[in-house]
Amino acid sequence: MQERTNEQWLEDLTPAHPHQAQALADLRQEILHGLPYALSGWLTPSDPRFEALAEEVAQETLLRVLAHLHTFEGRSKFTTWVHKIAVRVAYSDLRRKRWQNYSLEAISETDDGVPTEKWLADPSASPAQIIEGQDLMARVRRMMAEELTDKQRQAMTAMALTGMPMEELARRMNTNRNALYKLIHDARLKLKRRLAQEGISPEDLLATFGNP
């Protein structure tokens, strides 16, 4: 694969550039090369699901890179920036697939059920960031337990934390989209007030649990 500087990557990936096809092929290989390490805590290359996931992630990452090429600021290597996007895409895909295999009751469990902190952890995070995220998640869980009704907590956990689509969540909770929207809206207002009381800003949560 051809070595490129940040500037060369940006130039070669420009739409209609004569080298764009080769640059995309090289970038795809770069993404696929880094995924086994990035996903080692979630999925190994020997898992039969890995190859299909890797292909999905590579394609989606390339699309996002092309769509956001203008946002690259050059503060790191271009490939490092791309790998971070790939990890977030892979994480989101894994999280989206996981809820399909669990009931709402299992998703909402905190001790013997699905480890929500594991779902939320960023594979690229440092040990310090992971510990900070786990501590913040524990505080959020406590606030949810103290402030929300059972249905509000169930809905917030399933949709906001595990990525379950609203349509699917409404079906599982035997309600309609409008009623579910109000339920989640009210729950968010309660949590927003409690977060403010405890000195936690929405930015703090986004920095830890933000979508890829």
Short description:
With 212 residues, the protein is mainly α. It has eleven helices and no strands. The chain has helices spanning 6-12, 20-38, 50-67, 78-98, 104-108, 116-120, 127-147, 150-161, 166-172, 177-197, 202-209.
CATH topology of the largest domain: Arc Repressor Mutant, subunit A
User: What would CATH call the homologous superfamily of the largest domain?
Assistant: Winged helix-like DNA-binding domain superfamily/Winged helix DNA-binding domain
CATH class of the largest domain: Mainly Alpha
Name the helix and strand elements from N-terminus to C-terminus, one letter apiece: HHHHHHHHHHH
Average pLDDT over all residues: 79
